[in-house]
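Handout, page 2. Input:
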Amino acid sequence: MLKETLHKNIVKDLKVVRRLITKINPDAAEYKPIENIRSILEVLQYLSSCSTNIIRFWYNEDQSDPRGFLTKLRKDDPIVTLENAITIFDAQIALVDDLFANITEDEIQNKEVTYPWGGKGTLGEGIIETSIKWLAAYKMQLFLYIKITSNQSLTTPDLWHKIEIES
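Output:
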């Protein structure tokens, strides 16, 4: 049951991001409030793989170098643009589906994983501590950037519940 809950949560958040992409003012794609903070496109780039790369690491045979593994995956990630973002997020949703199809409920409850920053937990705890939290935090950053840079009247449901892209 926890497996299904985690899976649904990640997919829903990725679908919310897909919808938010349609609200981005193209002239604001490079917007960042100050230097040394990610721009809209950089936030999208991070969101495009943060929920899956860590799970892929935990199923990699060599877990001795999490930073190296994750850096390599990020280098292989496609570059997100406003033109290809929806397609990239569709691919992420499919990847989440594939990853969770190969994870058992027992692994969610009992497989021990090591966090990239050290410490250990179960796979389920790890997914909450990484994928779920990272998606929620950066999705909110994207939402706020869009509110700041567009004339869209986005509200709370746009951040948490609306997943369908309007035609």
